[in-house]
């Protein structure tokens, strides 16, 4: 026999409306009552019927989150922070991944429409190619929050939170220049598809600020296999074999930087004595490596928290006039993986 909120109300000695509010974490219900309701629900074996609930209220109490890579610790930390924000408001978070594939990215958005999510938080790679489906969310008055702002969305009406990645890269270059480095290269996954993104504009500005030549093809080494650790390893192997004068590597994220570090060590070289390495995102990886990684903090948890706040603000008041965007500043976190530039040439390199 299916247990209903009426059964819980009878067991607790309250109304079904109070039970419903307690189960949805309504702030008007006392913690004591919430605890009684939750204990009774557990004892009776209550399971909420989300489908029936959506028919009755027009809401699914579900927020959709779309991310490019669940294997990247940055996105895992972001999702956890977003999930905490949704759960505290009585909403579930549903997550889909597209692995930087444009077709899968569109399919993820279409699936979120079919699921009738009440709001969407998405890391989108391009705005114009997805504009038609994003506008469908708007037409249905479903809040759509962009995590990060694609270059082609600058003039759009899309809400979003984003970090100034370019400034972070400039800080990293300043730091490496102070240590005497000039032969600085960038190791990336998917770089050539996104040459106009903030990290690469920051790279160019940083080099030009210090009077160093910049050519994308010469300074950026990239792979894309769908595995960012492997991408970092393979791109670093190429750069060490073709550009052994390099003394410092900036990875597009901590996972790619870890791949770079692995390959440097496989060649019998030492970090930071032979090669300095900088990561991006300041994830748990940066803190857990034997050589603590110098990295760029992109305020992951804070951007997720604010994205959730904007989304629920839109749910409360859907008559918005202009987009709401919050920018966060990057911050260089100096670890143990960067040091003064080496004063010797590398030996002939062979994989160990």
Describe this structure in words.
This protein is α/β, with parallel strands linked by helices and 352 residues long. It has three domains: 5-44, no CATH class; 60-163 and 299-329, Response regulator (Rossmann fold, 3-Layer(aba) Sandwich), CATH 3.40.50.2300; 165-297, 3-Layer(aba) Sandwich (Rossmann fold), CATH 3.40.50.2300. Helices cover 44% and strands 15% of the residues. The strands form three sheets. It has a six-stranded parallel beta sheet, with helices on both faces. Strands 7-6-8-9 form a four-stranded parallel beta sheet. It has a two-stranded antiparallel sheet with strand order 10-12. α1 crosses α2 (16-23), α1 (5-12) crosses α3 and α11 (228-242) crosses α12 (254-266). The longest helix is centred in the last third of the chain and has 17 residues, at 300-316. It is elongated. The mean pLDDT is 89.
In a nutshell, what does this entry contain?
Helix content is 44%, strand content 15%.
Low-confidence stretches: none
CATH-defined architecture of the largest domain: 3-Layer(aba) Sandwich
Give the name of the CATH superfamily of the largest domain: Response regulator
Q: Estimate the strand proportion.
A: 15-25%
Q: According to CATH, what is the class of the largest domain?
A: Alpha Beta
In CATH terms, what is the fold-level topology of the largest domain?
Rossmann fold
Largest sheet features: 6 strands, parallel
The number of helical elements comes to 14
The number of E-state strands comes to 12
Radius of gyration: 24 Å
The domain tally reads 3
Secondary structural class: alpha/beta
What is the terminal-to-terminal distance?
65 Å
Indicate the overall shape.
Answer: elongated
Calculate the mean pLDDT score and round it. Answer: 89
| Order of the strands making up the biggest sheet | 2-1-3-4-5-11
Can you give the helix content as a percent range? 40-55%
N-to-C SSE string, H for helix and E for strand: HHHHEHEHEHEEHEHHEHEHEHEHEE
